[in-house]
Amino acid sequence: MESANKRNVLSDFLSTLLLNIDQKGLIVYANSSFFRLTGYSEEEIIGKSIFPLLKQADAAHFKGRLAIASTAYGKVFRYHIGFQKKDQEELKVELTISNQLNHPDLKCIIVEARESAYQTISHEVGLSDENLFKLIWHNSQDAMRLVDENGIMLMVNQAFCKSVEKTEEELIGRELSIIYNSSMKEISDADARREQLEHFKVNMGERNVPVHLEKQLFLWNGKKVWFELSNAYLTHPDGRILLLSVFRDTTEKKLAERRVRESESLFRGIFNTSPLGIVTLDIKTKLITNANPAFVKMLGYSIEELTTMPLGEFTSSSSRNSEREGIEKMLRGELAVYENEKAYLRKDGTAFTAKLFLTFLRDHNDEPTLMLGIIDDITDAEEMKRRLTQLVSELRHNNTLKDRLLSIISHDLRSPFTGLLGFSDELYHNFSSLDPEEVHHYHGLMYRSLHSLYDTLENLLTWTRLQSGKLTANFTSFNLVKLIGKVVESFKATFDKKGIRLIIVAPDSLTMQADTAMMQSILTNLLSNAFKFSFKEGEIRISVTDRGGELVLAVRDFGMGMSKDTLNKITKDHKTVSRQGTENEPGTGLGLTILYEMVELHGGDMKIKSMEGEGTEVSITFPTTQH
Prior knowledge:
By secondary structure, the protein is an alpha+beta fold. The chain is 42% helix and 26% strand.
């Protein structure tokens, strides 16, 4: 067999790059894989220096290694390097350099570079075709097999033995079909091998063996292996036609491709069916490159409209700044995932609250290629959270009301009943021994207790209606000064008992918009409190001021006043404080609470000034126009 023939055929079908270079780095031989992968022609390479084909840093490194190899006969050096292809792209490989300069027959360097695994084997050997063939045969990582026309294996290299897990002794002289099993359960392995061998013989006889193919082989040991297979015919010196086959194991590549397809299928399924909005964005322009149906529905734009818009188009400028900072942190490696909660605007102008998650999609070199955004509409969750917070607040408020109600019932309502029971008991058991004046006295006490009880119940009912929302304001226009006169008239007899002087400072007529019944209740409570805490022969002043846009109603007494602690409880903590008047008049503290509620219903504001021993002033500001 001619070794030159074998070398040329082997070189043409090996996927590795083969180069012969001399000690100065001049290329004297290159195989077809080198030309195919780098894009150069034979005229552009043979006789030229190898150094211009390398990156500047790699060329300096290679020159140094070459110099070391020139003085280290028989040693092998391996390292990574990058060839510059004709189109200026880089082809990364791994090199092995072996010094054979002092060999009696071998006087140059052969470079074998495995591009797909980035592994190159370089051996400095002579130009002898036989030596070159042997070197390639024994050192190549591609599996090689030589068979005759009958399918008998004549030669196998170590890589082939390793691939099929059989020794050279188990393979040489045997039919090529012994390494295979049947891929179909209904056909036995023996029948499958026999059929495969006959098929091979027919193809060999017709010179119909495929030159290149990729297929999955079912090996004798049960393994399933994918191979890229290259075939070439050789002619033996005795005239026999032989077939040289070069196998490259692509199982890992196929598994990787399948994993990629499965990942793509899984991502596509999630992308299309997820209820979350999912978008991909260009890292440089920040424009949306794709959006899933959920995101399209969420924003109300078409996919065509969305793919011309940046994600920040739907948010405020402050949110866009925050996103920009988050992306910069991700690019610097300080952040894996950026997340933010903010408001988004739909195409129809309505807003919704969503949580945004941003991260990078990366290539096999861990370089970011796209940005992935996931948007979770949490509007319903936020509304539920808000509603729950409101319900909790209402429950707490109702619980406080319950405690207040129980306190009033247990104290302010029970006390008058206790007095009434005592008076009625005295009258019942001692009526015959009491003179008319004493009976009249007890009747008077009972009368006042019943009126106090009635006022308490009236206030309690008003307060509960306000708390439950059943009491609403019905705004009408009326003369406030006239209403004040009506309420004051009803208090005339009461004021006379204490000798209270009443001073009114108001215009003759002043129209306002308010609920008449509530305003009467407000005036009644103000005058009742002023009377209760005024001393005998005291004075109460009522003033009304029109400030243009608002009315100010003020009631001032010069009675017992309040301490700072009591005033703070009423004005700041809005607590009910029960106090007796100057003549021991009973009170529940509900009056001021009712005042606050009714004033609030009118959009007004109430302020209280008081000093112990000097009296109290309550001023209420009402807007002149109600909406």
